[in-house]
Amino acid sequence: MIVGTQKPMEEIWEMIKSYKKVLVFGCNTCVAVCHQGGNKEAEIMASMLNMHAAQEGVEIEIQHSGIERQCEHEFFEPAEDTIAGVDAVLSTACGIGVQFMAEKYANTPLFPGLDTCFLGAVDEHGVFSEKCQACGKCVLGETGGICPVSRCAKRILNGPCGGSTNGKCELSKDLDCAWQLIIERLTALGRMDDYEKLAELKDWSFDRAGGPRKFIREDIQV
Amino acid sequence: MSTKTPSKLEKILSAGHLAVTSECGPPRGSDMDSITKKGELIKDYVDGVNITDNQTSVTRMCSLAACIKLKLMGIEATLQMVTRDRNRIALQSDILGAAAFDIYNILCLSGDHQSFGDCPTGQNVHDLDSMQLIQTARHMRDEGKFLGGDDIKKPPQMFVGAAANPFADPFEIRVPRLAKKIAAGAEFIQTQCIYNLDKFEEWMRRVCDRGLHEKVYILAGVTPFKSAGMAKFMKNRVPGMDVPDDVVKRLSDTPKEKQADEGIKICIETIQRLKEVEGVKGFHIMAIEWEEKVPGIVKETGLYPRPEV
């Protein structure tokens, strides 16, 4: 899922304070799981902004609403009137949702309420960690199911680097060395012979390097 | 052993001599004086001088420019290259630039993470990793081709090296990792600074058991401590460094004004002991901002005069 964190109140306020009627608009899927941008969080953010407006003595009407997903047209229908009735929208979706709305509502100013952080998993309640960078060519088959692209700070394909200490990354004692995990996993699977196979130069053209990516299924297009 | 490049370092190693290399950090400015001074200080005592590449991720003059300067002074230079700051286009391009100035040695590294340096908000590249940079340098030399497949007119003649850290974790993969670097094409190795001699010797034993010492020249890395404070810093703060407690204690127990001398003494004793270790083919003396101590260390360890090849 996509993990995001709420922007600081001051930054949000600077973006929206010149509008009269603002909608805080939640996205109730990925960013609701990390309790940052779901419909409930949108409601809380709206009331915080209302309080802030009162403190600042600024007259601004802040509403809240939300849908299940801001990245697909079909979910927007119940919210069309609400969106049409405001001067600006503060979306608490990830960057995908904000952009999707900006394209969909060409005349409505759209602002991000979150910083979109990473593609990750829920390791435990309240703990989310990055697991994938969508590089476009998955190497998990060679690395025992642990991703060096997203989980090694240098995305080293033939690791670990010389900075790995006590199983931790040179960046932080709290960060596992991805290659330590890979080696433990290959050992557990009896596949350590694979460790000495050189990983080829990666084709990054499937990654960001190749430009914005698109995937089209002509057979299901309407 | 026959040589494959015009590298003086390669000639010395292949003739069976114990090689001695050192390294210099380029200045944090555009004045070459510090490089030329460092070069003059050590040139008669070493077979090659590595120039570090923005070490610890702090922005400095580029390794290539400083290597060229040394080469123009008649000093054998080793271009250190990290994969942190350049993509495969820039790496190949810089290799050609170095080759154009007859720089015949390259050391392929991944580089410290940029968060340790002066641009912690910067992006890193890591298009290739250090292993793949070794492959690239060998491919350019041996196949005479760019990674993209086109022919190189006058391919670079680089003697290709890599780093090895016998002390990083996990220890079990330290020898397999060396084997992997050799398979990628590494011809010489400069190790991490050695303070834990027992652990290094254990690593060398495993290297020799696999016969890897016959496939690559291993230069043991040493760095003299200037003080007990430096030893503690290296022990606690430098990633992948193994400084045993007894070494720190030996320096701490020495009066402050004599700690530098004690540091040099430890370094000399280390070299003397490692000269006897099977598979050690030379020494890489990294006297950090202390280049003036290199001649003394080389003389005291019987490694002077350097052989003519």
Can you offer a commentary on this structure?
The complex is a heterodimer of chains A (222) and B (309). Chain A is of the alpha/beta class. Chain A has two domains: 2-118, 3-Layer(aba) Sandwich (Rossmann fold), CATH 3.40.50; 136-210, no CATH class. Helices cover 27% and strands 19% of the residues of chain A. Chain A has seven helices and seven strands; from the N terminus they run βαβααβαβαβββαα. Chain A has helices at residues 9-16, 30-33, 39-56, 80-84, 95-104, 148-151, 178-188, and strands at 2-6, 21-27, 61-67, 88-91, 110-112, 114-124, 127-132. The model of chain A has no long low-confidence stretch (mean pLDDT 97). With 309 residues, chain B is an alpha/beta fold. Chain B has one domain: TIM Barrel (Alpha-Beta Barrel), CATH 3.20.20. Chain B is built from eleven helices and eight strands. Chain B has an eight-stranded parallel β-barrel with strand order 1-2-3-4-5-6-7-8, surrounded by seven helices. In chain B, helix 2 links the parallel strand 1 (19-24) and strand 2 (48-51). In chain B, helix 4 packs across helix 5 and helix 8 (228-237) packs antiparallel against helix 9 (245-252). In chain B, 50% of the residues are buried.
Tell me the β content of chain B: 5-15%
Proper CATH architecture of the largest domain in chain A: 3-Layer(aba) Sandwich
Mean pLDDT of chain A: 97
How does CATH name the architecture of chain B?
Alpha-Beta Barrel
Quaternary form? heterodimer
Question: What's the arrangement of secondary structure elements?
Answer:
The complex is a heterodimer of chains A (222) and B (309).
Chain A (H helix, E strand, L loop, with lengths): L1 E5 L2 H8 L4 E7 L2 H4 L5 H18 L4 E7 L12 H5 L3 E4 L3 H10 L5 E3 L1 E11 L2 E6 L15 H4 L26 H11 L34
Parallel strand pairs in A: 2-3, 2-4, 4-5
Antiparallel strand pairs in A: 1-6, 6-7
Chain B lengths: L7 H7 L4 E6 L8 H10 L5 E4 L11 H10 L4 E6 L5 H13 L4 E5 L20 H14 L15 E6 L9 H11 L3 E6 L3 H13 L7 E6 L5 H10 L7 H8 L6 H17 L4 E6 L8 H7 L9
Parallel strand pairs in B: 1-2, 1-8, 2-3, 3-4, 4-5, 5-6, 6-7, 7-8
Helix pairs in contact in B: 4-5, 8-9, 9-10
